[in-house]
Amino acid sequence: GFIRIFADVIGHQVADNAREEWERSERTDQVRQALEDRAFSCVYQPIWDLRTFKPVGLEALVRFLPSPYRPPNEWFADAEAAGISVDLEVEVLRREMNALEVMPQDLYLSLNASPALVLSGRLAELLAPAQPERILLEITEHAIIDNYDELADALAPLRKSGIRVAIDDAGAGYSTLQHILRLAPDRIKLDMSLTRSVDTDPARRALVSAMVLFARETQAILIAEGIETRGEFETLVELGVGKGQGYFLGRPDRLVRTMQVIKSPPGALA
Ligand code: C2E
Ligand code: MG
Ligand code: MG
Ligand code: MG
């Protein structure tokens, strides 16, 4: 009767909680192991000047190797839960920076960095071997950060040395215009949700136009992310967005492959 149903429900809940707990600890073990074994590789996506079709930089993106495939942000979330996210980011960045030796001198290397990594104070030493002008730091903020002044303070000495800063995923809802104003970034990376269908959706077109004005006013360079079609590409150029990246212009790939892509403009543009 009732007791039996009650016990069943409670029993299921206990089992569910136990399973979740077990899965979480499995993932924590996996991310620890990945850090220990350096079980990740790095891919690079070209960033282009949309008017000249010349490459301006490469964004480094990490790929964790243990299967099944899971996107980098899931790994970083697990690493955060395990208390090792900054250590993991440091190791990833170290690896990604190797590309500088192979890349053309006039291209910058764009590196993703969490606020936690910036606030850790470990970036100065990590980036010291690089020419500062060749580094663009993309600040991602999937976790809401309250203290933007602290973040700006931590970035100040790096920027003084010549390292440039981009706010990543602008328009995705993580960073408000207030945040962007306070950080006064050198680059603003438009989230791909704004790029998507910019050619067919008037509201999105208006938002991108507003961002173009905002960027101009704050003297930041705009980079559109996630350009997938000729229509999106052409509309972004028409609206005055200067730089961009996306599958239409080159997918993230092993460095040797990306170097081949940047030697000649992508076929899509021919
Ligand atoms: P993000 O920095 O905004 O990176 C852009 C994401 O969009 C990448 O996903 C990239 O593969 C993907 N992408 C590029 N072009 C296109 C396109 O045309 N269409 C679509 N649909 N997607 C496109 P990915 O590599 O899965 O990375 C996701 C996020 O994980 C990154 O977002 C970044 O926040 C974080 N991340 C990736 N690598 C690193 C890293 O080495 N360090 C840190 N701290 N974070 C990283
Ligand atoms: Mg990025
Ligand atoms: Mg982004
Ligand atoms: Mg993104």
TrEMBL record:
<feature type="domain" description="EAL">
    <location>
        <begin position="24"/>
        <end position="266"/>
    </location>
</feature>
<protein>
    <submittedName>
        <fullName>EAL domain-containing protein (Putative c-di-GMP-specific phosphodiesterase class I)</fullName>
    </submittedName>
</protein>
